[in-house]
Amino acid sequence: QNSAHCLFEERSEGPQAAGKVDLLELDGQRVEAVAGGRSHIIAILEEGDRVLSWGHSNELGQLGHGGAASAASVAPKAVALPAPRMMVRQVACGEAHSLVLTVAGAVFAFGDNSFGALGLGSPASAIASTAQPLQVDGGALLAAPVRAVAAGAQHSLALTLDGDVVAWGCGEHGRLGLGETHGDIVGTPSRVPALPMPAECIAGG
């Protein structure tokens, strides 16, 4: 569906067949990696030093453009990472939040934090949402470089260089794998216990 011009310039309400994303702002740009949330998209450009995002709205800051959030549709624009030309390895999107992993192993998060998916600490209600990318470096990610990230609808995952899986966000139905000692909202990155060996990859549903 292209009701918010996320795929190409001509507005369309119906389902779309697979094809090239045709937006003026992407003309001449080569994309290295892309991720999509419920109604937003984030992409790493070819050199890895620029990240663009766009979508149906930026109401919860999920595009990471900084400044005030907006409910209007947003054309591709650079994510406001804290340093210019920061080299980025991977991006991931939840329903209304986003993660950016740098080549140096740092994780940045922005968007909806109502379930703690940004990993900014407890209680999650202290920061309901943010349009400014903030580093996730507490709990089990303190001084722990990360090699991969993943996102579910309202939760996030990281894989450290040591092979530990770290989870935070909505823990309903056991989706974080943290056992009975954690509640339904986990705002601080926490190591998933009892995995049989160092993990090789992660994914979120």
What is the count of β-strands? 12
Give the CA-CA distance, first to last residue.
Answer: 21 Å
Radius of gyration: 17 Å
Q: Structural class of the secondary elements?
A: mainly beta
The succession of helices and strands, N to C, reads EEEEEEEEEEEE
- The poorly predicted ranges are none
Q: Which bin fits the share of residues in helices?
A: under 10%
Strand order, biggest sheet? 1-2-3-4
Q: What about the largest sheet?
A: 4 strands, antiparallel
Please count the helical segments: 0
Name the beta content range.
35-45%
Mean pLDDT: 89
The global form is globular
Note down, in words, how this protein is organized.
The protein is 0% helix and 35% strand. It has 205 residues and is mainly beta. The strands form three sheets. It has a four-stranded antiparallel beta sheet with strand order 1-2-3-4, with no helix packed on it. Strands 5-6-7-8 form a four-stranded antiparallel beta sheet, with no helix packed on it. The protein starts with 30 loop residues before the first strand and ends in a 14-residue tail after the last strand.
SSE topology sketch:
Layout: E1 31-36, E2 40-45, E3 51-55, E4 74-78, E5 88-93, E6 97-102, E7 107-112, E8 129-135, E9 146-151, E10 155-160, E11 165-170, E12 185-191
Antiparallel strand pairs: 1-2, 2-3, 3-4, 5-6, 6-7, 7-8, 9-10, 10-11, 11-12
Task: Offer a quick outline of the entry.
The protein is mainly beta and 205 residues long. It has strands spanning 31-36, 40-45, 51-55, 74-78, 88-93, 97-102, 107-112, 129-135, 146-151, 155-160, 165-170, 185-191. The model has no long low-confidence stretch (mean pLDDT 89).
